[in-house]
Specification:
- The chain has 308 residues and is mainly α.
- 68% of the residues lie in helices and 3% in strands.
- The protein is built from 15 helices and four strands.
- Strands 1-2 form a two-stranded antiparallel ribbon. A two-stranded antiparallel ribbon has the order 3-4.
- The chain binds geranylgeranyl diphosphate.
- The site of geranylgeranyl diphosphate has 16 residues, from α4, α8, α9 and α10.
Length: 308
């Protein structure tokens, strides 16, 4: 990523130092996660080491960054958004640990390191995923709550995104679609649930931590939905065009597993066009913030142009 991202196509044409923004926010998120998680020496140490192994393996922290940037767009502070940003990252990491298991995608590498089950064994990896998911709800339950968004709203937000109607539904449809010819509409169903739901939830929770208005929450929902879909299309493209070293996970897995992807359903060029259109829809959603959503705009552009 270049140090300065210029957001051609974004509403507010100005340069924004996204590299510095991400470095700063990632450090804050890592410090907070370290505080929220049991220490690696807490008994039974194996499970806490396994949770920390995947959580601190070098993820891009895009979901927490979206939460913090969404809070800022709504006039809130990164500090207030941090617990919810960390809760989402715990859920995301759990989903990756389980996704990599032999019974699922059976992968050896994630975030540039051996997968959790390769290091700790399958049983501990399953439990580490379970514990990270549970940890997310503890962090959320301990957050302060806001007048428009008390704890019940926050917890429901997480259960909705992570439950059997969204994240799990996407994973089930993905598994059931392997080796089958599926339509673009069915693929969109998978992407909406497997990927977009949690990215959308990240943006919404950021807004909630700023006690955002109904109109702001609707704008963040619209933004997160479109960015989330673009994110997965780019992920499909990178699976074909990048090396395993660059991605930090095994490249070419979708083709090998005979998974339906945007590139193999609509072609590479059309996939890039669709990702661009979705990103522009995301920019449109930010109009309501009148120039205060520069970090969200820069993140959306980065997610479209990323190469890992
Ligand atoms: C309940 C057994 C059980 C499993 C749940 C829901 C689920 C497993 C898996 C879905 C997870 C998945 C692989 C979603 C796709 C989203 C995606 C492209 C993730 C990669 O996100 P990045 O690139 O990763 O942000 P980093 O490592 O940078 O955080």
């Amino acid at each position: 990523m270049s140090a300065t991202a210029t957001r051609t196509g974004a509403r507010h044409q100005q340069s924004f130092d996204l590299a510095a923004y991400l470095a700063d926010r990632t450090e804050a998120v890592n410090r907070a996660l370290d505080r929220f998680l049991p220490r690696a020496t807490t008994r039974p140490a194996t499970i806490h080491q396994a949770m920390r192994y995947s959580l601190f393996a070098g993820g891009k922290r895009m979901r927490p960054a979206l939460s913090l940037a969404a809070a800022e767009a709504c006039g809130g502070s990164p500090e207030e958004a941090l617990p919810l940003a960390c809760a989402v990252e715990c859920i995301h990491t759990y989903s990756l640990v389980h996704d990599d298991l032999p019974a699922m995608d059976n992968d050896d590498y994630r975030r540039g390191k051996l997968t959790n089950h390769k290091v700790f064994g399958e049983a501990i990896a399953i439990l580490a995923g379970d514990a990270l998911l549970t940890q997310a709800f503890e962090i959320a339950a301990r957050c302060k709550g806001w007048p428009r968004y008390p704890h019940q709203a926050i917890i429901l937000e997480l259960t909705h995104a992570a439950g059997s109607g969204q994240l799990i539904a996407g994973q089930v449809a993905d598994l059931e679609g392997e080796g089958k010819k599926i339509s673009a509409d069915q693929l969109k169903y998978i992407h909406e649930r497997k990927t977009s739901a949690l990215l959308c939830c990240s943006a919404r929770l950021g807004g909630m931590s700023a006690n955002c208005t109904v109109a702001q929450l609707k704008a963040l929902t619209d933004f997160g939905y479109h960015v989330g879909l673009a994110f997965q299309i780019i992920d499909d493209i990178l699976d074909v065009t990048q090396t395993s070293e660059r991605l930090g996970k095994t490249a070419g897995k979708d083709t090998k597993a005979q998974k339906a992807t945007y590139p193999n359903i609509v072609g590479m060029e059309r996939s890039k066009q669709i990702a661009q259109q979705l990103t522009h829809r995301a920019f449109d959603a930010l109009r309501i913030f009148r120039g205060k959503a520069v970090a969200l705009e820069a993140l959306a552009m980065y997610l479209l142009q990323r190469d890992r």
